[in-house]
Amino acid sequence: MFKAAVITVSDKGFAGEREDKGGPLVCRMLQEAGYEIEETAIVPDEKDNIKAQLIHMADVHDCALIVTTGGTGFSPRDVTPEATEAVCHRMAPGIGEAMRAESMKVTNRAMLSRATAGIRGGSLIVNLPGSPKAIRENLEVILPALEHGLEILRGTASECAVPDKEAK
Question: How many structural domains is the chain composed of?
Answer without folding.
Answer: 1
